Amino acid sequence: MLVSLSVNPEAMQEKNDLKIVYTPLHGSGVVIIPKALKAFGLKHVTLVEEQSIPDGNFPTAPYPNPEEKSTLQMALEKAEEIGADLVMATDPDADRVGIAVRNQKGEMVLINGNAMATLLTHYILSQKQKRNELLDSDFVVKTIVTTDLIKDIARDHNVDCFEVLTGFKYIAERIRENEKKKRFICGGEESYGFLIGDKVRDKDANATCCIFAEMTAYMATQGKTVIDMLHDIYRQYDCHQETQLSITKKGQSGEEEIVRIMERYRNSPPNEIANSPVVKMFDYKIGKSFDFANKKVERLTLPVSDVIQYHTENGTIVTIRPCGTKPKIKFYFSVKENTQDFESLEEVEMFLDNRIEKCKKSMGL
Question: Domain ends where: 56, 86, 111?
Fold first, then answer.
């Protein structure tokens, strides 16, 4: 099934000497992923042996979350030791994956969940388009806190993009709703989860590892890196940058404080964020959107959820949601800027980093 998801098997045949370091972080990925990568034609898959023994105590990875850079440390060291092109680390139940690739300078850089979803969506759709394999019924799915680059890429390929609430169950729900009517291509969320094809219907690191490796091989056949591909996307669709901030409040009093914080943002939305006027507010708890610029109120179609989202005039998006299981509140920041007025992408990224810091201050953080 995994091999059937390939969108460019020729790339793997041409560049089967790609060197990969893989770690299952003491979890279940060790059973399938090395075999699957070899089935894709890759000859050089090196395991981090110390982390390849299933162990629920996670002796070498106390916090086995692929979002954490420290969790990939042993794999990154192994990559430097053998000169690997790609590092992949799956969490213990192998549904999420952390990835590092080499840039043009030969340095290993981490790919966050938004960038991973952007790259995979672009690669899969563009390869299918080249092969005339896209259908009018095709669609992709993203959550409301995942980069809007996915919407831009889908639109450019004449593919529908559905937005859902945070949580992969909502992506699976959208697949089921469209069964026998539309074809699901891929979908993802910013927290390092991605799904290709509709066989699994949950985030699946097995398929993600295989197709990301194929994409890396394909870019190598073009004399480019995955980072080059990401930069090309930024030049075409604007440079996007996303980050999140989690604030934990302790105990019952903490939960009550989070309720008050949400009500304050709900009842007193900011007039501007980082010097850009707030033009829209989406309140998923009451199921309404407020278009301040045009003085319109519309009904939302997504399920009820305690989530508030602000959109500003310059395309900045700030989303606020409390955690459902802990006294924690999360802030998601998404900013973008056209690259044409900057001498380099590094300059744009620094500019956007600064904008995110201004957003945090505007939100009182």
Answer: 111
